[in-house]
User: Which sequence fits this backbone?
């Protein structure tokens, strides 16, 4: 069993590393794919495993993006002058300045988003069910609008990020690698977390929070830790995405509530929420479908995507992994086991 | 007097609780003796479950005092009281229905300060062994890998009981543990309640409608009626008490 799993991971690692060399024309799309995998997986930590359907995780993505932008620029320039002189002057970053700024920017984005989720948790985790979903959606929408009013970070017209110092091909590979790395780290961390007592605790919160509370589980603490983990990765990937795109502005790039914000939920549902692999499978499938419709059904792509969403929600709520689990329970260890009982326990 | 106080693990003094115009608990005082089994009986709607909810902090009481191990707990929250070692089961059985039985057991470990497992502890070793032996104890060992929501109601009730034991509480409040369980299983359950009390040293306080069960189980019984404490005493005393007979048992008993 361990051997098979190890082989699977080796296969994914190999494919992930080889793909950009074989299909360099799709490298941008494949980087986006890993971002989607990360988003769906970390959304599922709350939405699937803990039963808190957040529609506002994109807040951490956008805030991370802006935090990293400010850090990267502020280390060497005056941010206000940089943003207000948009286009007029082209600030130069040496190799060292660029990579150091990027590294610290991504870290700051992760921890900044984590802190934000901790503070938001005090307010939001008083809400349950649809109220939590709408409340977090409200925060994401408001965050985008608010960011647009802050002139320090360029307001509605945004910031152009520092230029990558090396060749364009290397730039694409570099950001692809970052996305792949972050998605892999997130996946392995979640995998470990779900195997610990913490994983069971958030499952318990999903199944019956009042019971969990009555059994002495410190629910608020667990919920905040869960959201902080999600926020950390969303902040980091936001920082990476901002640098990958090269230009950030509040509504379309940093806080895309109606696209990325909803896609991550749809992907987790498609693959099967509450499972480790469901969001990964869902993200890959969704991304492929999305890109195919964008290429072959241009003009109708949103209709096609909407249709798939509706079919998923109405006829296929359990998702791919949920369906597999129902069809092949033995494979997932859901069996009656008549093993002879312990003699000393029986006495 | 001092030693007498020590022998009571829970003391309820003059508790009042009303919901709007409904007076659910009126001036209720009772004790739960440490290490013993205490029963609470009374007709439907007499305030038994309200009293349980008051004790575990599910809602604030209007006045009175509730003392657990010489500590006032009437102002504490549900989770805080549970972490002191005072646990309850629910009348409408509550388990984690999408998780399998073993996971239900594993997450029910104590979350008190002296708890042995940390937040990110792996799920194996001694804790897993204890979970399996308790599932064995309630007769669910062979079903341990099934999703608990797919079990029958009676089995879910047994699972909830096992989960409560997994937590190693000092006191366990059981709200109608035998309701909905078939007569054969009831005998087994009574036996297991006795064993939990004697072997694991857990103080029990049981709300029960099945008179045979409560008479077999409890050493001391409180009878509530219309939100008030009607009578209390040994099972045999209560069975002979005319007020209890009129209010609850009916002439035939």
Assistant:
């Amino acid at each position: 069993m361990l051997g098979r799993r190890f082989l699977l991971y080796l296969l994914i690692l190999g494919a992930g590393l080889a793909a950009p060399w074989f299909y360099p024309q799709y490298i941008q799309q494949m980087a986006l794919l890993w971002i989607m995998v990360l988003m769906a997986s970390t959304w599922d930590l709350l939405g699937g495993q803990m039963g808190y359907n957040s529609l506002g995780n994109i807040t951490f993505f956008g805030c991370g993006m802006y935090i990293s932008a400010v850090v990267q620029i502020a280390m060497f320039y005056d941010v206000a002058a940089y943003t207000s002189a948009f286009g007029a002057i082209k600030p130069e970053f040496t190799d060292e300045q660029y990579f150091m700024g990027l590294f610290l920017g991504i870290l700051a984005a992760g921890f900044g988003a984590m802190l934000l989720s901790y503070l938001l948790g005090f307010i939001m985790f008083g809400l349950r069910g649809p109220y939590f979903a709408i409340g977090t959606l409200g925060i994401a929408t408001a965050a985008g609008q608010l960011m647009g009013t802050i002139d320090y970070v360029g307001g509605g017209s945004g910031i152009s990020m520092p230029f990558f110092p090396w060749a364009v091909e290397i730039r694409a590979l570099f950001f692809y690698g970052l996305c792949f790395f972050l998605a892999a780290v997130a996946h392995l961390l979640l995998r470990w977390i779900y195997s610990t007592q913490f994983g069971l605790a958030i499952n318990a919160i999903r199944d019956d929070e009042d019971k969990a509370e009555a059994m002495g589980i410190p629910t608020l603490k667990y919920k905040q830790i869960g959201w902080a983990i999600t926020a950390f990765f969303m902040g980091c990937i936001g920082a990476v995405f901002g640098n990958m795109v090269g230009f950030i502005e509040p509504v379309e790039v940093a806080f895309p509530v109606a696209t990325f914000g909803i896609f991550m939920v749809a992907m987790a549902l498609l693959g099967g929420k509450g499972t480790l692999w469901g969001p990964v499978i869902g993200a890959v499938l969704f991304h492929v479908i999305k890109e195919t419709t964008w290429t072959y059904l241009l003009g109708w792509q949103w209709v096609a995507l909407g249709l798939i969403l509706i079919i998923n929600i109405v006829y296929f709520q359990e998702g791919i992994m949920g369906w597999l689990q129902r069809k092949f329970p033995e494979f997932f260890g859901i069996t009656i086991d008549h093993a002879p009982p312990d003699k000393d326990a029986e006495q | 007097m001092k030693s007498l106080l020590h022998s009571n693990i829970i003391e309820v003094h003059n508790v009042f609780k009303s919901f709007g115009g409904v007076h659910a608990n009126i001036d209720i005082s009772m004790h739960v003796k440490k290490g013993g089994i205490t029963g609470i009986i009374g007709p439907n709607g007499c305030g038994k479950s309200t009293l349980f909810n008051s004790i575990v902090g599910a809602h604030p009481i209007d006045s009175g005092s509730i003392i657990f191990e010489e500590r006032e707990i009437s102002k504490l929250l549900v989770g805080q009281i549970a972490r002191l070692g005072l646990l309850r089961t629910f009348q409408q059985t509550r388990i984690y229905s999408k998780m399998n039985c073993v996971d239900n057991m594993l997450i029910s470990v104590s979350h008190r300060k002296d708890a042995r497992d940390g937040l990110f502890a792996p799920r194996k070793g001694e804790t897993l062994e204890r979970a399996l032996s308790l599932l064995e104890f309630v007769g669910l060992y062979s079903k341990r890998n099934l999703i608990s929501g797919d079990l029958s109601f009676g089995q879910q009730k047994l699972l909830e009981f096992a989960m409560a034991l997994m937590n190693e509480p000092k006191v366990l409040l059981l709200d109608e543990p035998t309701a909905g369980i078939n007569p054969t299983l009831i005998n087994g359950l009574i036996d297991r309640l006795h064993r939990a009390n004697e072997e694991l040293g857990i103080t029990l306080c049981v709300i029960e409608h099945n008179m045979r069960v409560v008479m077999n189980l409890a050493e001391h019984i409180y009878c509530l009626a219309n939100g008030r404490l009607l009578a209390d005493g040994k099972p045999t005393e209560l069975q002979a008490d005319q007020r209890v007979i009129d209010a609850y048992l009916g002439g035939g008993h």
In short: Confidence is low (pLDDT under 50) at residues 340-347 of chain A. Residues 18 and 136 of chain A are 38 Å apart (CA to CA).
